[in-house]
Amino acid sequence: MTTYYDRPLLKEPVWEWMIPAYYYVGGLTGASLVLGAAAQLGDTSNRQALIRRCHWIGFIGCSVSGVLLVADLGRPERFLNMLRVFRPTSPMNVGAWILSAAGAASAGAVMVGGPFGYLAGPFGYLAGLFGAGLATYTGVLVSNSAIPIWQEGRQVMPILFGASAMASAGSALRFFAATPEELKISGSFQIAGQVLELAAAHTLERRVSTVPRVGRPLQTGASGAMWKTASVLTAAGLLVSLLPGKSKKKRIAAGILGTLGSAMMRFSVAAMGTASSRDARASFERQRTSSVTTVN
User: Hey, what CATH topology would domain 146-285 get?
Assistant: First the structure.
């Protein structure tokens, strides 16, 4: 296929390590807030510690996420400038608002007390609502670009990010589970997230490989190695979780594998985007395949 001296058609992403780290921390934070809101339903007498822990993870995670974004942007005012307007057509702008709202709601859930203690519940539900957006909007963000592999996977990427967020939150909460009920809830959340993550990853591979050149970063190079490693770690964490027994070593091993798999998946998505943007033929082949499909 003819290109212009094999020069890339697109500029590669300029994001550094702070952004994929934000993908992981934001996903963990958002999913924890969703689980905390769900745990508030019904009789909560045996789940107060879990709810409190989810809200604290949300509050700390939102703070860390803000630091990571500001570190990547370079100056704090650049983040604040995104809050000057609300632009629904911009995933980045909407994401800034979601992060700010989730942080405020989670702060309310952990800090209100005394005569205002009755507000903790509503703050928790509100935090769960924004947490769902925080766990998934980054998948929309990367898909809303001209980079072939990200754009081709735009229908699956938000699901993959949300599922990985569930896996990461369940894995983290298993480290701190103090009661059998907490362990059961966090373990079920982790297993459900890992099953859905593996299914979404397989679907993404099939979708982006419709044009073989577009799916190449998942098979070769550093991005391919990271992607495969993420799948292996997630599958291993799922397998350990499903093994019989309730030993502490098994719980810790499942949590570590799940955490590493979820984090590696985020970094592999960033790496595959860079590799795809450098491949001029991927851009041309995807455009020509799309044109032929449209004409037919």
Answer: Four Helix Bundle (Hemerythrin (Met), subunit A) (1.20.120)
* Over residues 139-153, mean pLDDT: 90
Instruction: Answer whether 217's CB lies under 8 Å from 149's CB.
Output: yes
Asked: is 15-144 a CATH 1.20.1630.10 domain? The reply is yes
The per-residue pLDDT for 113 is 60
Could you give the dihedral angle defined by the CA atoms of residues 236, 239, 244 and 248, in that order, rounded to the nearest 10 degrees? 30
CB-hemisphere CA count at 13 Å for 255? 19
- Whole-angstrom distance, CA of residue 3 vs CA of residue 276: 15
Task: Please choose, from the candidates 29, 99, 27, 23, the residue with its C-alpha nearest in 3D space to the C-alpha of residue 57.
Answer: 29
Q: Which residues contact 248 (CB under 8 A, 6 or more apart)?
A: none
Tokens of 7: 């020069």
Query: Minimal CA–CA distance to 39: which of 55, 58, 25, 27?
Result: 55
97-135 tens-digit pLDDT: 999 999 999 999 988 765 566 778 899 999 999 999 999
55 with 112: CB under 8 angstroms?
A: no
Please name the residue ranges forming H helices in 74-179.
Answer: 76-81, 91-111, 120-143, 148-152, 157-176
- The CATH 1.20.120 domain(s) of the chain lie at 146-285
* CA–CA gap between residue 24 and residue 270 (Å, rounded): 12
Q: Where in the chain is the domain with CATH 1.20.1630.10?
A: 15-144
Q: How far is the C-alpha of 73 from the C-alpha of 95, rounded, in Å?
A: 14
What's the pTM value of the predicted model, to 2 decimals? 0.90
The residue whose two tokens read 């701190």 is 176
